[in-house]
Amino acid sequence: FWKKHAKIQERPPEFWSDDFKDLFMWMTKEEPEKRPTIQEVKESAWYKGKIYTQEEIANKMKPYYEKYFLN
Fold this sequence. Notes:
Blueprint: H1 2-8, H2 18-27, H3 38-42, H4 54-69
């Protein structure tokens, strides 16, 4: 799943953190009762993870902006 999406989106497979992948897979369980509540999402490692500064976000997004909007 992740390798296929990385290829489609032209991103390295490690683009998505393990914490994000774990949360995503939990949130997309087939049976709704097995999905996390909002509170469980807020308690997840991904939700509590690093918050980027505006400068860090700009630096991370710059290559994508240049590729998709300037070419």
